[in-house]
Design brief:
The complex is a heterodimer. By secondary structure, chain A is mainly α. Chain A is built from 11 helices and no strands. Chain B has helices at about 45-55, 75-80, 100-110, 115-125, 140-155, 170-185, 200-205, 225-230, 240-250, 270-285, 300-305, 315-324; strands at about 5-20, 20-30, 35-40, 60-65, 70, 85, 160-165, 190-195, 210-215, 215-220, 235-240, 255-260, 265, 290-295. In chain B, the strands form 3 sheets. Chain B has a 6-stranded mixed beta sheet with strand order 6-7-8-3-9-10, with helices on both faces. A 4-stranded antiparallel beta sheet of chain B has the order 2-1-4-5. Chains A and B meet through α1, α4 and α11 of A and α2, β6 and α3 of B.
């Protein structure tokens, strides 16, 4: 077998291992899905009536609870991606603090396999969680005018962003000294969607916050998904979203691999 | 395979420090193919660090190390394809079953579906884990986990195995089972380097023993050779009154009296003839010996003699913790 074939074979083995963990202990997956679903219900039913009335300006129609549901679903999908990525940090850190990683390191297996197994495992987990969240959104009345192709593009944008956040979370999991730290450090990822156009239009925010919200990566991704699902113009948001996702993914991947190799060299922890 | 001249492991002048702390300070060791070598030492002596270096987990700061003929520093992957490692802390996946753990190893060793399945069934059988194969690891006892750990190590038929304190924390029965397994592996021609802080374990298993203390090898040889260095044991005579002890001490000038304990330590009296001689002499002088005990030398004596302290020093444990 060539070295690429070994990498694929070993990564597949590691992926199978992570999927077994997820299937055997579905509580983590359910928790990751539960978080955005609770937010969806909270925002639509508790705050949605009032927030819907406030919608308007900058191309967003003035409306009621169902208008807010339409508005908030893209934000909820983004927060779903962010919260699902938290699981990666936890599972990577759990692995790194256990004895099994030392066993892997004394075996002749493809270097990147452990991390690739985690990242693809988390990506599939994110996909499952996204499907659950969309199902709940549809059940409470969300309707989209999007074509099948637009849904496909939505999935593509969300999964590309998921790849970026999962690699970032994997790096944070590697950087953490304990599983407890690893479950806390990526928390900011679930905060950033609130400081974007995910839940309310950015032009209702005070100036400093608005500028932050307009330039942070979650806004272009949200706006792209919103544009695709509501059949509205997307403008430059799509290209900015893709650029942010690719940039975060590449930088985080390099950081994660470096941390993984350094741990290997130092051998401590 | 079993060429006694070939060395499976050879290490020269191995040095390793963590920051200011020198853990290994010029360690040399050679392990012949198909033999059991025991690295003996208290906690913090550097045993685990040595195993981590030999098994490619960490790099030495200096020295030359070859395992199975391959240089550990320049060709770690060649070394990894030959070795198996079972560490002090079980390296098993707690979220999988025993069978799945073994399957994971078979897949990573690229055994192929049928060969993997056969090997797994064989190892489950051999380590008496067949009944528990499909149970989650949370139901496994300490001994079962350790056996599974070793079975995982053996999946790829390694020719050199590192066992870092393989029986620490096991009950006596599990310990004996583990010893039996280790002996069988050596019979099959596998080279084994094991670390232990139990002198009895080294004595039971090892062909060759090296005593590691403060980062240096302070004694090396077969268990028998090391014991021979200890002047052949002694007999301890216990007396009822100081007067008898003093008289006896005068008669036996080589012996060491202890006035507090009312005992007399007579060196080299472990064999029947010299014991009879000592007792006859005391009897002739009408000196009453209350009772006596015979001490054959064991590795505890060796350890004490070469390191100047008792074998267990829990005070050093922080250093082992630092290495993790």
């Amino acid at each position: 077998m060539s070295s690429l074939a070994y990498t694929v074979a070993d990564s597949t083995t590691m992926l199978r291992r992570n999927l077994k963990h997820q299937l055997r202990y579905p509580s983590l997956t359910l928790m990751l899905a539960g978080f955005p679903i609770v937010f969806l219900l909270l925002f639509v039913y508790v705050l949605g009536g009032q927030l819907g009335r406030g919608l308007g300006g900058s191309g967003v129609p003035h409306g009621d609870r169902s208008a807010y549901l339409t508005y908030v679903v893209p934000g909820i999908l983004i927060i779903t991606v962010a919260s699902a990525a938290l699981g990666t940090a936890i599972s990577v850190a759990t692995d790194m603090t256990g004895g099994i990683i030392d066993r892997f390191r004394t075996m002749s297996i493809a270097r990147a396999a452990v991390l690739i197994g985690h990242v693809i495992g988390s990506l599939l987990q994110t996909l499952v969680v996204l499907v659950l969240v969309v199902a709940v959104a549809l059940a409470i009345g969300f309707r989209s005018t999007a074509s099948a192709l637009a849904w496909l593009a939505t999935a593509g944008v969300l999964l590309l962003f998921a790849v970026a956040l999962i690699w970032l979370s994997a790096a944070l999991g590697l950087a953490a000294k304990s599983v407890e730290t690893a479950s806390n450090t990526p928390m900011f990822l679930t905060l950033l969607p609130f400081l974007s156009s995910g839940f309310v239009p950015t032009d209702t925010m005070p100036v400093g916050l608005r500028q932050f919200a307009e330039y942070e990566p979650f806004t272009p991704v949200t706006q792209t998904v919103r544009g695709l699902l509501t059949d509205n113009p997307i403008g430059t948001h799509a290209i900015v979203a893709v650029a942010w996702s690719a940039g975060i993914a590449i930088a985080s991947y390099l950081w994660a691999v470096r941390l993984y190799n350094r741990r290997r060299a130092a051998g401590s922890n | 395979m079993n060429n006694p001249n070939a060395s499976a492991i050879s290490a020269r002048a191995v040095r390793k420090s963590f920051g200011e702390h020198i853990v290994l300070n010029g360690v040399d060791l050679t392990v012949a193919e198909g033999t059991i070598f025991s690295l003996l030492g208290p906690n913090g002596a550097g045993k685990t660090t040595m195993v981590r270096i030999l098994s490619t987990l960490i790099r030495a700061d200096g020295g030359a190390i070859r395992v199975g003929g391959h240089d550990v520093a320049s060709d770690p992957d060649a070394v990894r394809s030959l070795i198996g490692v079972t560490g002090q802390f079980s390296a098993v996946d707690n979220l999988l079953t025993g069978q799945e753990n073994l399957q994971l190893m078979a897949d990573l060793r690229h055994l192929g579906r049928n060969a993997g399945r056969c090997r797994i069934a064989e190892l489950l059988e051999r380590f008496e884990l067949t009944d528990a194969a499909n149970k989650p690891l949370s139901t496994y006892s300490g001994g079962m986990r350790r056996r599974l750990d070793l079975a995982m190590t053996l999946i790829g038929n390694p020719t050199v195995i590192f066992l870092d304190e393989p029986t620490t924390g096991l009950d006596p029965r599990s310990r004996r089972t583990m010893w039996q397994i280790i002996r069988e592996l050596a019979t099959d021609g596998v080279t084994i380097l094991l670390t232990t802080q139990y002198l009895e374990e080294a004595d039971q298993l090892a062909d060759q023993v090296a005593v590691l203390d403060n980062g240096r090898i302070v004694a090396e040889g077969t268990p028998a050779e090391l014991k021979r260095r200890m002047s052949g044991g002694h007999v301890q005579l216990h007396f009822a009154e100081p007067q008898s002890l003093r008289s006896a001490a005068n008669m036996l000038p080589n012996a060491t009296p202890d006035l507090d304990q009312l005992t007399l330590q007579v060196p080299g009296a472990g064999c029947v003839a010299s014991l009879r001689h000592v007792l006859n002499e005391l009897d002739g002088a009408r000196i009453d010996v209350e009772h006596l005990s015979i001490h054959t030398p064991d590795l505890d004596d060796v350890f004490f003699a070469v390191t100047g302290h008792a074998p267990l020093e829990p005070a050093h444990q922080e250093e082992e913790a630092l290495q993790r």
